[in-house]
Records
---
Amino acid sequence: MKNKKLSLLAALLIAAMVLAACPQPTPVVETVRETVIVTQVVTETEEVVVTPTPVPPVQGGVWVEGSSADATILNPILASDSASFDVLGWFFPSLLGQDPFSGAIVPTEMASSWDVSEDGLIWTFHLQDGVMWSDGEQVTADDFKFTYDAIGSDLVETPRKANLDNIESIEVLDPLTIQVTYGEVKCDALNNLGLGWLPSHLYAEDYSDVMDSPLNQEPAVSAGPFIFNEWIRDDSSTVLRNDNYWKGAPNMDGWIYKIVPDPGARLAQLQTGELDLIGVQPEQLTTVQLDANLNLHKFQDDGYSYIGLNQANPANPQAGQDEDGNLVEQDPHPILSDLAVRQAIAHALDYDAIISKVYLGQGYQIASNVLPAVGWAHDPSLQPYAFDTDMAAQILDDAGWTDSDGDGVRECNGCATAEAGATLTIRLQTNAGNTTREDLGALVQDQLNGIGFDIQFEAIEFGTLVGELLGQTFDMVIIGWTGLGTDPNDDSFWHSKFDTPGSGFNFVSYQNARIDELLEQAVSVPGCATDDRAPFYHEIQKIIHDDIPYVFVTGSVGNVGYSKKFNGTNPGPWSFYHNIETWSLAE
């Protein structure tokens, strides 16, 4: 915009008064009063804002995404693979929106607002009015209820049965109002309401045709930004602009999902313009970065790699709780139950070298269990453990682990948990065939042995490794978690009730009564406001950081290469296409 300022000329005009007197024999004093008008011109500045005429966005164009795998089914309650959701996500409305940068639940989809009862069990959702399916039928609360009732039907075989957990009832109060009643407050269960809705007017009332409906292959209607056009198996899926999309019709004509199995071929087609977006392999990053026609979106993903440190004796696995929910005192691990040893391990690893050499730069150091991508719950003030071999060695010395015989391996000489004379020998395991983890294991072995550990590293068959993990018969393990999602609740990793030999994911036998309490409080906040839940997760992160049941090696990253064909792209870690209806051709 241009601002124009107009100034007025200021001048002060003063009139002069002259008194004249004629000589007289007898002086007469005469008072003369004359009114003098003084004109004052005041400078006045006025800002004029000139608003340029908006340039309409350029219409047209097609965006082509490259994928290694094809979709399998285009029904939101039957699909289980990411490729299917990539395509079907354009058609079916959902109740709750998601902030593309923090992952927080926001009212940007069908629910424009919601109310929560004082006890946090009854949620009343108020829906957007005027949202239409592409065949002219209105999207209503009946579509939501039909979808979730279908999930619960014995006639529907769906991997989404767990989405009904803790839901006692779903009621339609009116076409634009839904009431969901829960059995208990469990904030992470809100994500279970995020499935796409089926168009109930196109299905049998008894759900008998859901499994075999032709709509599973060719969705006939859409309430999203695009409508289905064509699916050529193992080749491509094509969608076209929905001119009646309630958020505004996209500027682009359509979107294509093209199947290109070979990553090298995908990169080549990105460079030639045949594709507009691909996932980028680490070895392809430089090529994308040097191409003036491409952008690189590097984001922190929802997973991490870690070294799990078993707190309990692997020769005597025990459940973390008894039948009444009371903590069971564990038979401690003879070495790793000592916090000083865990601290030494955390400080002895060169994380920069690990990330650059093992992960080829595709990672970042993290401090605790809640990742930065979950921005509302992540505590950025926590600092990761610094690489400091001198500090690590001193910690071991102070803890009674010293090398008394000079053979390079420390022994227990006054240590807290092991027998006198026991060596600092620990098994480190990972799954064979995962070259990244095997390389990490060799590097960790080398770095820890450098300060007096005797690390016995082995890569074993994955099924065998899982058996040792769940059976809690290991010492240390290199493994990872992926797909953690937008809610920070990870109680299955830390709560003592999940310390169950044979099945539980708290296979490091971590026990902390305060952590148990915080995990329960964090998911039972009435109303589930992120501002109310965040303090619990900040404290959880601090305790886990200090207790070191895991040594957090690296957070996962994702890389997407994409063309500069369209203006307006603004990708976040949780969504690349969140504002696609506003994109417009750059030329």
---
Amino acid sequence: MKIAKKVCLIGRFAVGKTSLVRQYIENQFSEKYKTTVGVSISTKVIDIDDHSISMILWDIAGFEQEGHYKHYLRGTQGIIWVLDGTEPESFDIFEKVSIPDLDSIPAICLVNKCDLKDQWRLNEDSLQKIRQYVSTIHYSSAKTGENVEDSFNELAKKLLGQ
């Protein structure tokens, strides 16, 4: 059975949303930073058990501008919250973004840049705050690929209700 699911990546400017998508789809990382304007849409088809799921990934530009993102979120069926472990300001994204029916949408949180753990500013208080919004938290690195594919695929399983 073939299924298509819209998944939005939500996070502040420069947390690594685009790099995570590129790593997941192409197994590539670029040191060159390119700002996303509006939204960039990519697709990856994966097979889980007897299902073929098309993950339609909406990489939405940074969420610093209040409200610009709302129309991109319409119809989203999954959410990947992206935080930067080296930037505490990125941890407050949950308070900045208003999503109707958020509790009913399968979601995961990727704390990106785990290859820079010596520079991380994530502590237990921050983690407790994040867990108020999302229960599944993974540490990932778009640069090395650590935990990227497994995390996206875990969300795909949630989207299938597994």
---
Amino acid sequence: MFVSLRASCRTLTTRSFFLHAMSDTPQAKKQKLDQIKIIGTHNGTFHCDEALAVFLLRQTATYREDPAVLETCDIVVDVGAVYDESKQLFDHHQRGFTEVFGHGFETKLSSAGLVYKHFGKEVIANKTQLPADDPKVMTLWLKMYKQFIEAIDGIDNGISQYPSDIKPKYKSSTDLSSRVASLNPAWNQPSSPEIYDAQFAKASQLTGEEFLGKLIYYANAWLPARELLNAAIASSKNIDSTGKILVFEQFLPWKEHLFDYEAESETPESEKAIYVVYPDDGGSWRVQAVPVSSESFDSRKALPEAWRGLRDDTLSTAAGIEGCVFVHASGFIGGNKTKEGALRLAKAALEM
């Protein structure tokens, strides 16, 4: 339940706490009430950043919510014209505010980014059940900012993804910030403080569910793929003396991880991977050329021109390797019936 006590403040109540407290003794109730922390944000029209900021705070061990006015709040987000972490004040609207996330990110923070910067690691550790000092927490913290939080910061601060002189080819209104905005009452609908607060609760829940969904994916699917990529790189010279062929025993999303690894380790151009070998769903094996970037269709070294567009026995004859299945007309990918055959294709292509 959300209760607004004055026009400048929205404060929040955790219903589950009060339902639980009803069964306690008066002394136990008083002790719990004394431990409650108050989160304050502005009233009226809401945006994605404060909705998410409030959700994130509710995932920490410190902050719970209770009806209160702004000046009595333990933490204030998206209102107050002050950013002071020591006083738990997290606004970004004031003149002269230039705070960014750091770590190479340059987008000015919204209240979501501010709260995430200071509390995100705790939230991630809590939700993944990892120790707070586990390196994986840091990896996920940076990844979640890049893939989820930064866009909210940019949109709330009016920062375009691209130069303003480029005309968009279509309108996008299904991003998270747009969907949160649509939860505000329309101009011709009732808009009492109680209605705004009820809708804000929905918005905070929406942002939180999407945040947690992304976090679960990155923790349970993305991060394990990163670890397998690192293992493949570590053993690459056991596959080929050049170290330019990576082998995976199962398919995994490797491109982004490979480029991240090369950037973080400052891999010299002469030592970067050229081909990746992995099994496909049909039991055959693929040889894929590494692209020049994660978004590019151009390869660092496409499979040889003489093989492109050929299939089956014709390709096997041209390559001098049994079991060939195909090579794409652009040379970015090919296949062989066996792992050994796919490795032979990759090694032969390196030498051509």
